[in-house]
Amino acid sequence: MHNKESFFINRLKSITYAFKGAFILVTTEASIKVQFFIGILMTFAGFYFKISTTEWLIQIATIGLIMALEGVNTAIEEIADFVHPDFHKKIGLIKDMAAGAVFIFAITAIIMGCIIYIPKLF
Ligand SMILES: Nc1ncnc2c1ncn2[C@@H]1O[C@H](COP(=O)(O)OP(=O)(O)OP(=O)(O)O)[C@@H](O)[C@H]1O
Question: Which residues bind substrate (predicted)?
Fold first, then answer.
């Protein structure tokens, strides 16, 4: 019983920490604020163009994924700055790779957006 209780309390604590992290990201990180704003714009576009349920699912997953990836990228940058605050080629490479991962998905998201919206525009 004790173990079961501590399992649920620990899960609850983890959710609280994760919520705190998400709040910090959305309120302090410029790149995530931008993605959040784009997400809101795309949500309005979704209602305006009356996209289908499948398109909504793709759009919501894409907005969530890009913000989550930006969050991971920010966390990697924080770790890099923490373990090596000075300039180092390897730190630069690590940060570039993390940013590159976000970039790959950002391009994917733009292509998916074009596939959904271009036929509705023309
Ligand atoms: N300590 C460092 N050593 C070597 N190169 C670095 C270092 N810090 C940053 N860079 C280079 O500068 C780029 C930008 O790094 P920075 O940490 O400013 O990220 P950013 O993309 O501007 O993120 P943010 O705007 O969220 O701070 C990195 O991708 C890397 O090429």
Answer: 70
